[in-house]
Amino acid sequence: MTSFPDLTPMAKIEVVIDGADEAAVRDLFLGAGASGYTAVTGVSGFGHHGQHQGRLLFNDRASLSMLITVVPMEHAGSVIAGIRRLLENRHGVFFVTETYVSRPDYFA
User: Fold this and answer.
1) What are the tens digits of pLDDT across the range 1-55?
2) Mapped to the 3 state alphabet, what secondary structure does the chain carry?
3) Quick check: is 75 in a domain?
């Protein structure tokens, strides 16, 4: 594992879900102590459920979204547990990576 002087290690959590589930993931992030998130709508990809086009068909709930947050390591476990529960009955994937930030107070 690489260490960067003057940078603080944190957890980056990315969740790709149906647009209809975006609010649930947002609430989960904020309820677990995240100070913010980034939402990317109209995500394209290919996976277990076939090809997903990024264009919006009729509304933002008919496409995929990706939500990204960065949290202190001590908050990551509760976010991960919540996402696992959420995805038990829904389509979606999530990724957790260690990242480093220069302004940790932005993520506290």
Assistant:
1) 567 889 999 999 999 998 889 999 999 999 988 999 999 987 766 666 665 555 5
2) CCCCCCCEEEEEEEEEEEHHHHHHHHHHHHHCCCCCCEEEEEECEEECCEEECCCCCCCHHHCEEEEEEEECHHHHHHHHHHHHHHHCCCCEEEEEEEEEECCHHHHC
3) yes
Kindly state whether residue 82 falls inside one of the protein's structural domains: yes
Helices 73-87, 22-31: inter-axial angle, 10-degree rounding: 150
Could you give the number of structural domains in the chain?
1
Residue carrying the six token digits 């390591």: 73
CB atoms within 10 A of CB 39: 14
- One-letter amino acid identity for 83? I
In a domain, 1, yes or no: no
Residue 71, domain extent: 8-107
Strands 8-18 and 92-101: what pairing? antiparallel
